[in-house]
User: Which sequence fits this backbone?
């Protein structure tokens, strides 16, 4: 089997690819089939599914084909292609994409045009080759041209183009390999979401700069949508103010709680210190008693004893000095007898001095 642009085909074991060609699938888009001139040189014998699952000859991989519209390419498409790629140990995945003419004729209008859908498939990591303008119903000539061994698709009968199942003849030939659909995601589901919430998306795009003409919106609806956008902005501002006010209140509550705790601690400390100083057994009371006793002792005079025995003076102690320079005034006699007695004594004293 000759690969792309004359090189050997790449070997693929599961999800781990060992490229043997110049093209690196994970670093470049997948090529288009009509640009590669892919030709099979090795004998292309028909394989059964059991043989393919056991492993094919080393000279070529199993060529698996998957087709579809792939509009609004999503994860459900990617998972289906991943399953097709990993059906066999060594496989080469070709993906056919139908043109706009066929799709609009047999299925309906698409959101993406055919060029956009081709490019979406080229950038899927599981795709090795993209076939543009794929047929709606597979013919033997098409299968032979691209050397397709098996066709991968979900097992639900696909009724279209006057047929109950366009894959019926492929199933009868033993070339059909089923894949599983991904629940909850499809192109129709995505379009349904957009149609259901049309006003939301129209307002969104108006807000992003699209014109009413580009969105096919009437003048009245445009004014309505713009007014609703203004109302939403006001609601958002009010919501932000409420959230900020709640945050401010929470902060005030936290700070007040901290202040109350600190005040309680300080008040307990103040009360303890006050009781320690001014309580019944406080230091202030003892200090006051001591000072008051000192003041009373200092203010009250000392009382001399009424009768005290005459103490003999110690010879070591010097007598208290007498101030002889002070004039001595005799006390007046209390009676005539005392006056005469004092006069006599004074005369006797004078005689003795002589």
Assistant:
């Amino acid at each position: 089997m000759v690969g792309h642009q004359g090189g050997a085909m790449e070997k693929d074991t599961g999800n781990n690819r060992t490229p043997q060609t110049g093209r690196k699938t994970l670093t470049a888009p997948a090529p288009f089939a009509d640009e590669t001139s892919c030709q099979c040189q090795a004998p292309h014998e028909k394989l059964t599914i059991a043989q393919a699952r056991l492993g094919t000859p080393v000279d070529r991989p199993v060529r698996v084909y998957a087709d579809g519209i792939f509009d609004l390419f999503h994860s459900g498409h990617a998972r289906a292609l991943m399953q097709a790629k990993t059906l066999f140990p060594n496989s080469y995945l070709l993906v056919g994409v139908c043109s706009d003419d066929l799709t609009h004729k047999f299925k309906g209008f698409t959101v993406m045009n055919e060029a956009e859908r081709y490019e979406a498939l080229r950038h899927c990591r599981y795709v090795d080759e993209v076939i543009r303008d794929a047929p709606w119903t597979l013919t033997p000539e098409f299968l032979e041209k691209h050397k397709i061994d098996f066709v991968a698709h979900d097992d639900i009968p696909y009724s279209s183009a006057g047929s109950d199942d366009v894959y019926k003849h492929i199933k009868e030939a033993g070339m059909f390999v089923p894949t599983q659909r991904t629940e909850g995601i499809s192109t129709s589901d995505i379009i349904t979401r957009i149609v259901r919430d049309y006003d939301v998306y129209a307002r969104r795009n108006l807000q992003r700069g699209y014109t009413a003409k580009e969105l096919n919106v009437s003048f009245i609806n445009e004014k309505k949508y713009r007014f609703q956008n203004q109302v939403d902005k006001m609601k958002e501002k009010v919501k932000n103010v409420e959230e900020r006010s709640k945050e401010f209140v929470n902060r005030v509550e936290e700070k007040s709680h901290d202040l109350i705790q600190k005040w309680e601690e300080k008040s307990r400390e103040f009360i303890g210190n006050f009781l320690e100083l001014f309580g019944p057994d406080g230091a202030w009371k003892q200090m006051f008693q001591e000072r008051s006793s000192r003041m009373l002792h200092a203010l009250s005079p000392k009382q001399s004893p009424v009768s005290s025995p005459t103490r003999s003076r110690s010879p070591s102690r010097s007598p208290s000095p007498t101030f002889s320079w002070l004039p001595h005034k005799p006390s007046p006699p209390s009676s005539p007898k005392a006056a005469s007695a004092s006069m006599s004594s004074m005369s006797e004293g004078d005689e003795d001095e002589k």
In short: The longest helix spans residues 219-278. Strands lie at 11-13, 16-18, 62-68, 91-97, 129-132, 150-154, 176-179. The longest strand covers residues 62-68. Confidence is low (pLDDT under 50) at residues 1-23, 311-318, 320-329, 350-354.
